[in-house]
């Protein structure tokens, strides 16, 4: 079944703002077997909006309209949808009372304009909105003699997403042909992109009934497998079978079979080994610590670390001897190793990480070009060092280096 | 003049990938007076694509098609555009030679499929692509008796954006009515959103000839002013006048009149005052350091810092007395102040920053709820402390806290 998502709002036609709700809704739609065939963004002009709705009704079976349900003159989704379907609006008594009650609790006079939030298309079911004043609407309608499902949901993510989950998914499921969906997400780190494709494509392309999506970003590869069948078992069996073959091929590049992030996996292993971690970062400037501490509960295994951006800080926070820096340079295997050992000793952590490199855009030389990064992971027994040269701008080099650092810790713990 | 951008590619109809090129192109189009009225995302199905192109040609004057120019069977933009406009494709000799030359340098046999990248719509001008193998195309065409400009550009950002800048902008300018555009971006930090609107709307709404866009994100507000006139002076005068009034209203919430980031401004002031900075972060976990070190050349003023996630690290890296933590708790004004002073003394920096708080989702109490964050900024003369309670999830609290921390440093330096 084909769906179109229309995001309504002139702000999403500026260079500054993007629709992100549609990614969330697409995930939910795919889970129940609905494919998104088109996404459209249209501004707050009634004529444009009516046209976009009619175009959508001409090419898909399910239409989700997001936004334009507020109280201002620019909020035209109700009016435009009614016009596109040649239906009328009615002012709903219960909604009107709810609006008045809301205004009363705020002790504010309600502008006349607000009342339009109680307008409902004549044949629509009302979708309650616990997080805002504008309700959603659900229409089982006819357009050019075809049955069309049309949903109107609010634009703000904290209103749109809960409403879609609570109201739209079950209603959609009830009108869809019975399909069962199985889904799995595999994740792998630091596998070269060309190698990933060569390795994986011969496997997943033979599973034509499983939709495999590959997403690569700065050393992280995510494979999502999705299969829709008339029986739950059949769908799951196909996904499991393909997942098993891909996992085998990915070998120890694979870090997650259930969609966890790399930092979650690192923290999981640290917990499992009852180990703690501390980091000394130079070129990544705190990005490793930031990713780890983004995970709730990370304080159980992550002690902290030092952003040793200047040479004296490498000495005072990570015990790197100044002579070592003078001899080998701040960006060197030796200094990375000393940082890892030093931060481990200083903090009493089980594992220490050191990262030092040249993020660019300047500071590179022939021997040590922009993008060169040294890593070291240290435990009580030994310190392992690595180096890698990453391509791209400062941001990209730092992202790749952070991913590599986390992956080295993972491998140390495996 | 109205424009539509169509992004072609099934991967952008998954929950995982978003079109970002269109934001960049929209900025460039707005600068030359072209408004984006619609954005459409369509998958790699020829029928869907032909339909989407015809819909666009029916509602706008300028159409940009991004993606689908590669060598695979899924790359159908050339074919679909020709079909939508009832034009033919021709195989271009020079392009064919270029493809063969490219393959020769790689010492690889060229698959037959690759040749379709030399296919050009019969009336199109070829747009060179220095960063990839598929050239772009420029069409000055007719559809239902109306003149339409159609551009085909590649999907990868590193091919799409340079080609648009080098080839499309000047060609578009030549066919557009002569307009001059003036633009300014103002940025303000930590102004309450409700206050921003109350303060600014009465000013900018009176300038109906200047398009003002406001974007708010985690304590950061960006105002973009854009004015299009027949004379450059007239456009600039209106933008300058409005910018001046908004700057006055924003007072010291304003941190940038030229679009710089808050971390760039902090580094600018540090340079100006010949001052250095070191940070001790707990709940922000390295995010302050990460934002500062994202700016090239930040090592001139930023010495580094410590991510003192555990209590012992607060002592060993930021000299916070254990008794102080025992008495007031790790999340307290006293500890924030001690962290700021301690990190400044330990590193010899001119300024020290301390941040400690409860990012959540757990760890809050009645006295100290999730979202409560203490800040301190210390110099040789004194240490100023602040506290704020932010709403939202862990990520949001950390983002707001980071923004607040940077803004406190800015204000200290102003």
Can you offer a commentary on this structure?
2 copies of one chain form a homodimer. Chain A is α/β, with parallel strands linked by helices. The first copy, chain A, has 3 domains: 174 residues, Molybdenum Cofactor Biosythetic Enzyme, Chain A, CATH 3.40.980; 75 residues, 2-Layer Sandwich (Alpha-Beta Plaits); 152 residues, Alpha-Beta Complex (Maf protein), CATH 3.90.950.20. In chain A, the strands form 4 sheets. In chain A, strands 2-1-3-8-7-6 form a 6-stranded mixed beta sheet, with helices on both faces. In chain A, helix 2 crosses helix 3. The radius of gyration of chain A is 27 Å and the shape is elongated. In chain A, 48% of the residues are buried. Chains A and B meet through helix 1, strand 2, helix 2, strand 13 and helix 9 of A and helix 1, strand 2, helix 2, strand 13 and helix 9 of B. Strand 14 of chain A pairs antiparallel with strand 14 of chain B, so a sheet runs across the interface.
Order of helices and strands of chain A: EHEHEHEHEEEEHEHEEHEHEHEHHHEEEH
Q: Briefly note the CATH topology name of the largest domain in chain A.
A: Molybdenum Cofactor Biosythetic Enzyme, Chain A
Count of β-strands of chain A: 17
| Count of helical stretches of chain A | 13
- What quaternary form is this? homodimer
Low-confidence runs of at least 5 consecutive residues of chain A: none
In what order do the strands lie side by side in the largest sheet of chain A? 2-1-3-8-7-6
Q: What does this entry show, briefly?
A:
With 414 residues, chain A is of the alpha/beta class. Chain A has 13 helices and 17 strands.
């Amino acid at each position: 079944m084909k769906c179109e998502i229309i995001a309504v709002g002139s702000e999403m036609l500026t260079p500054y703002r993007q629709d992100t709700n549609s990614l969330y809704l697409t995930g939910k739609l795919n889970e129940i077997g609905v494919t998104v065939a088109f996404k459209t963004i249209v501004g707050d002009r009634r004529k444009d909006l009516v046209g976009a709705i009619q175009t959508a009704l001409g090419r898909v079976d399910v239409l989700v309209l997001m936004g334009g349900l507020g109280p201002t003159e620019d909020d035209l989704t109700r009016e435009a949808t009614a016009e596109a379907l040649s239906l009328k609006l009615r002012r709903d008594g219960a909604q009107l009372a709810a609006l008045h009650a809301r205004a009363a609790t705020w002790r504010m006079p309600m502008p006349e304009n607000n009342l339009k939030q109680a307008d409902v298309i004549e044949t629509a079911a009302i979708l309650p909105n616990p997080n805002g004043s504008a309700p959603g609407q659900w229409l089982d309608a006819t357009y050019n003699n075809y049955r069309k499902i049309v949903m109107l949901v609010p634009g703000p993510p904290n209103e749109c997403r809960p409403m879609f989950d609570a109201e739209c998914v079950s209603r959609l499921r009830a009108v869809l042909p019975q399909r069962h969906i199985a889904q799995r997400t595999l994740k792998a780190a630091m596998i070269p992109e060309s190698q990933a494709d060569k390795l994986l494509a011969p496997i997943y392309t033979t599973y034509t009934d499983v939709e495999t999506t590959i997403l690569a970003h700065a050393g992280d590869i995510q494979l999502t497998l999705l299969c829709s069948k008339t029986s739950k078992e059949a769908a799951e069996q196909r996904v499991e079978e393909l997942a098993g073959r891909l996992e085998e091929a990915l070998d120890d590049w694979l870090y997650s079979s259930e969609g966890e992030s790399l930092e979650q996996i690192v923290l999981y292993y640290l917990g499992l080994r009852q180990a703690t971690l501390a980091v000394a970062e130079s070129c990544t400037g705190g990005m490793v610590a930031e990713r780890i501490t983004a995970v709730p509960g990370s304080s159980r295994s992550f002690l902290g670390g030092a952003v040793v951006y200047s040479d004296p800080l490498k000495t005072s926070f990570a015990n790197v001897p100044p002579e070592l820096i003078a001899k080998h340079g701040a960006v060197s295997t030796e200094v990375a190793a000393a940082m890892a050992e030093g931060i481990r000793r200083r903090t009493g952590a089980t594992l220490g990480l050191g990262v030092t490199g040249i993020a660019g855009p300047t500071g590179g030389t022939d021997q040590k070009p922009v993008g060169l990064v040294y890593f070291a992971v240290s435990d009580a027994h030994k310190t392992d060092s690595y180096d890698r040269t990453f391509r791209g701008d400062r941001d990209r080099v730092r992202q790749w280096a952070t991913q590599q650092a986390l992956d080295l810790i993972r491998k140390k713990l495996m």
